[in-house]
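Continued from yesterday's entry.
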Amino acid sequence: MPKVIISEFMDEATIAAELAGFDVLYDPGLVDRPADLAAAVAGADALIVRNRTQVRGALLDAARDLKVVGRLGVGLDNIDGPACRDRGIAVYPATGANDVAVAEYVVATAMLLLRGAYGATARVAAGTWPRNALLGREISGKRLGLVGFGAIARETAQRAAALGMAIAAHDPFVAESDPAWNPAYGIVQRQALDALIEQSDVLSLHVPLTDQTRGLIDAAALARMPEGAILINAARGGVVDEAALAEALRSGHLGGAALDVFDREPLDAEAGAVFADVPNLILTPHIAGVTQESNVRVSAVTAQAVRRHLTER
């Protein structure tokens, strides 16, 4: 009977349905107990993780019989791909399963930051009626810049276009002839990165963390963004210089920002201190791609991939 270890949270009904007949250890707290996790993976055939479990080094050394890793999401920066390939371990991300959740997060957050009216509950309840202080901006007519134009960015573009935004994107890996630049909802302008940064009212990041993208949005890039622009990072921590972003918000150069991902995760009080008292900033705990619906989809796609690998080979 194949042994499957699940070290982070997953839809339990999906585990019961899709991994029936396997020896499953589901313990979403294992990620925070490295010694217990290493002991658990000894003799395991499969390991299912999200983004926090580091599938590399000592953990791979402990998992001598590991055949497959299922990733509850799409980013693979927590998995040592070359080491897995060298050991014959297959890796299956849940491609496409959380695209809609992230796209909705980006568009909803852009609207929230542009409008700026939704933090007034306490003042309204207290009778101050601060209408003049809450004259925000409409999303219609604004320009959305997408750094990266993969599946999630395309879902984001579709929703933004429906709200009247103009769409531009930069992605050197999507050929100029690719039909993605001319979807049914209208042309997506293909731009160089510098031009995209300089001309976008809302800049949303959709790139993996690599040597090339680490620190991509640094102080110089932030300074080139239009005054009052909005930055959203629901891709990977480390792509944005967090201290520089905090300063750009404090100075008033940027109109707002949202970070769902951080250079250090989970974000602790020490790393989070850089964001203290920063205005017009939304911080969320790497949750953009996780909704009730997407959790079921991601869990199902991952469990099915792991089952196929263990039973059909």
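--- second protein ---
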Amino acid sequence: MARVRMYTTAVCPFCQMAERLLQAKGAEIEKIRIDLDPAERTAMMEKTGRRTVPQIYVGDTHVGGYDDLAALDRAGKLDPLLAS
């Protein structure tokens, strides 16, 4: 299964929904807490061009946020991405 990295904060409901969806798929998630480390927030914004969380990577592919993740799942493209 592909490695999943998720930039997150402690009080983000969309982060929690993304985590539940990914866990239901059997993915192990490396969570990067940007609320605890300002350098990680800066790194996230430089990598993604976005300021909001979650920002999710499956392997080297930037999926985006929760809405993007859910749309990928509805389109049937999340499982193959996780399996790669």
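The CA atoms of residues 4 and 28 lie 7 Å apart. Strands lie at 4-8, 29-33, 55-58, 61-64. Will compare against the first tomorrow.
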